[in-house]
Structure formats: C-alpha cells, structure tokens
Amino acid sequence: PRGSTEENMSRVEAAAVTRDYALKPRLEYRTVAGVNGPLVILENVRRPRFAEIVNLTLGDGTQRSGQVLEVAGSKAVVQVFEGTSGIDNTKTSVEFSGNILTTPVSEDMLGRIFNGSGKP
C-alpha cells in the first residue's frame, strides 16, 4: 500500500511540473482616455512597454487585441487590430500581456500568405 501512495504522489508532482501556467498578476486597467481611429489612448499606466501586446475586453465581453505603438511616461497609445467600434472609457478594460508579437517559422510556411498577426 505504501508504494502505491508514493507512486500517486509522483504522478501528482509530475503533473504539476508539466502544467501550463499563466503568469499573474498581469496588469489590467480601465483608464481609456480616448479613441481616435484604430488607436486607443490609455492614461495612468504603470510601465507600459513599446510593442507589448494588450488584450481589450469591451463592456459586452467582446475580446480584441492590440499593440503598444507609443509610450510617453504613464501614457500609452495602442493600435487595436480588430477595430475600435464599441470601445468606451468606462466599461473597456485593457490587460497588458507582458509579451510582444511573435510568429513561429518553419519551412512549411514557404509560399503561403499570412496577415499581420501571422494567421493564414
């Protein structure tokens, strides 16, 4: 019986090591100061990074993504990839992912066409 308990613990430990973790806390703000075309201006943002990917959640739950184009102190200008209709300064939350846009590359991609987000 003792061996089976140790085996179960080993399985639990192995599962914990291989689990896909999401790093938290990611910084989330509700400080939209304005919208101008495809751009969203955020104020009172703590250490925004140039080219960082952000995830926007609109008041109705719709998800959009964007990228930081400009940083000036505690202000950040974000280009929204899917358009800015429906984004407002009271209900929209913006989460900074801490990551930049990346695309894996392989020889299978040769001759194919992709959009700016790397999707076929």
Automatic annotation (TrEMBL):
Provide this UniProt record's keywords sorted from A to Z. Answer: Ion transport, Transport
User: Can you provide one Gene Ontology molecular function annotated for this UniProt record?
Assistant: proton-transporting ATPase activity, rotational mechanism
ATPase F1/V1/A1 complex alpha/beta subunit N-terminal domain sequence ranges: 33-98
Q: Which domain of life is it from?
A: Eukaryota
List the CDD domains hit by this protein, alphabetically. Answer: ATP-synt_V_A-type_beta_N
User: What's a Pfam family in this record?
Assistant: ATP-synt_ab_N
- Keyword Zinc-finger annotated: no
Query: Alphabetically, which GO biological process terms does the record hold?
Result: ATP metabolic process; vacuolar acidification
The identity of this protein, by name, is ATPase F1/V1/A1 complex alpha/beta subunit N-terminal domain-containing protein
The species this protein belongs to is Phaeocystis antarctica
